[in-house]
């Protein structure tokens, strides 16, 4: 293991993102020691600039009151626009195609209201089996809302027997089998449980060829892997911002709507005041006129304090660069995989269910334990390691490139080794 330790130290010395760790608050134990935080796929750590960003808006509120809506340099009524550029860059979109608003599930419902328009013959929705419960609930409720039965209208993609992840050829085959009845394909960018990163470009092409609309849940993908939603012709996408975007618990989510719908006045939507054309919004007249692009799906004015926190974090992500983040992620997750293999080379106790191909995963490995998985998780927690337990037997380990180190991966593997022995 001494050789692996040396590798970790060398990787850390050569890491171009190593200084970004100091921009985050690292949790400590009761003795003041830093914990090993491998849970950024559930909640990213707090950037040190967040408190100052929020304090600035609190000061504006304290000294300006309602005038803060229109006072430079950061007037509240247009505050959400300051997040467009970094968000658009992360998912490969035009600025008019993205908006920070609401939370993920609210945005999913709003966009399904526009893009799930079932008919008597084309009414089915395809998701992955074992989808995150919130997505599953939203889809089922939308199906029932339109008068259909989920047992017939909901198609769940499942892996082959004895496999944990979906094969691309099986996804394509399932879409083509339902090409006469499929209304919407809704998949995650990265599957939360297994960590599988899907080929969104190809899936979108196939689904469009079958006559279906395509939406993605990017909760675990945004800030984790580079994407090109505009060029891939994705219809819509939604996300939260508190995982790899590090914007704080339950913070404001976001949405993408492709530019081909930007000025479509016929598309149905659940409208709100803030989606009305900006130039005459305050005239308070009836008759909804949607803003151009994704902004036309807004309901209410932005939540300024949460957006201030998100803006501070996005500035750090933008400075690091999503391509550099991805490059370190590939190295960091690959090193974690090597360490796991050194502990259990014959996979007697641990099986990695996340795809072995680095191009098919993000900053996460999901470990299945043949025995005592919950006990291992609890002992890791007692040792100052924060990871994520998922029933029935999975520990999700997610070293985040912005604040985790290779030495932490090595230390985690040594503690895991001791725990298993």
Describe this structure in words.
The structure is a single chain. The chain is of the alpha/beta class. It has two domains: 2-34 and 322-420, Aspartate Aminotransferase, domain 1 (Alpha-Beta Complex); 54-318, Type I PLP-dependent aspartate aminotransferase-like (Major domain) (Aspartate Aminotransferase, domain 2). The protein contains twelve helices and 13 strands. A seven-stranded mixed β-sheet has the order 2-8-7-6-5-3-4, sandwiched between helices. Strands 9-10-13-12 form a four-stranded antiparallel β-sheet, covered by helices on one side. Strands 1-11 form a two-stranded parallel ribbon. The relative contact order is 0.17. The model has no long low-confidence stretch (mean pLDDT 96).
Descriptors:
4-stranded antiparallel sheet, Aspartate Aminotransferase, domain 2, Aspartate Aminotransferase, domain 1, alpha/beta, 12% strand, 421 residues, 7-stranded mixed sheet, 13 strands
């Amino acid at each position: 293991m001494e050789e692996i330790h040396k590798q970790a130290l060398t990787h850390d010395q050569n890491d171009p993102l190593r200084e970004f760790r100091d921009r985050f608050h690292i949790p400590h134990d009761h003795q003041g020691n830093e914990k090993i935080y491998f849970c950024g796929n559930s909640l990213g750590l707090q950037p040190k600039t967040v408190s100052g960003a929020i304090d600035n808006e609190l000061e504006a509120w304290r000294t300006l009151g309602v005038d803060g809506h229109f006072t430079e340099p950061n007037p509240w009524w247009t505050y959400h626009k300051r997040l467009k550029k970094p968000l658009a860059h992360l998912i490969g979109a035009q600025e008019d195609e993205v908006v920070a608003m609401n939370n993920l599930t609210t945005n999913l419902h709003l966009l399904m209201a526009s893009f799930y328009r079932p008919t008597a013959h084309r009414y089915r929705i395809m998701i992955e089996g074992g989808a995150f419960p919130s997505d599953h609930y939203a889809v089922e409720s939308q199906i029932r809302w339109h008068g259909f039965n989920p047992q017939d209208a909901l198609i769940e993609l499942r892996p082959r027997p004895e496999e944990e992840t979906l094969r691309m050829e099986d996804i394509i085959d399932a879409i083509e089998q339902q090409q006469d009845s499929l209304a919407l394909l809704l998949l995650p960018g990265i599957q939360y449980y297994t960590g599988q990163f899907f080929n969104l470009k190809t899936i979108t092409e196939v689904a469009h060829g079958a006559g279906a609309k395509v939406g993605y849940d990017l909760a675990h993908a945004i800030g984790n892997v580079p994407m090109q939603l505009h060029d891939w012709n994705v219809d819509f996408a939604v996300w939260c911002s508190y995982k790899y975007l590090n914007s704080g618990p339950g913070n404001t989510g976001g949405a993408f709507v492709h530019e081909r719908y930007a000025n479509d006045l016929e598309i149905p939507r659940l409208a709100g005041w803030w989606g009305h054309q900006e130039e005459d919004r305050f005239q308070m007249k009836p008759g909804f006129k949607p803003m151009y692009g994704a902004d036309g799906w807004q309901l209410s004015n932005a939540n300024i304090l949460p957006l201030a926190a998100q803006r501070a974090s996005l500035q750090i992500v933008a400075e690091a660069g999503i391509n550099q983040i991805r490059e370190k992620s590939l190295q960091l997750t690959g090193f974690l995989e090597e360490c796991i293999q050194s502990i259990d080379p014959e996979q007697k106790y641990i099986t990695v269910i996340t795809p072995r191909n680095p191009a098919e995963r993000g900053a996460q490995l999901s470990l299945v334990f043949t025995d005592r998985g919950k006990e291992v998780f609890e002992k890791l927690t007692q040792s100052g390691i924060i990871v994520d337990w998922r029933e029935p037997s999975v520990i999700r380990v997610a070293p985040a490139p912005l604040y985790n180190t290779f030495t932490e991966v090595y230390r985690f593997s040594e503690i895991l080794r001791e725990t298993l022995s």
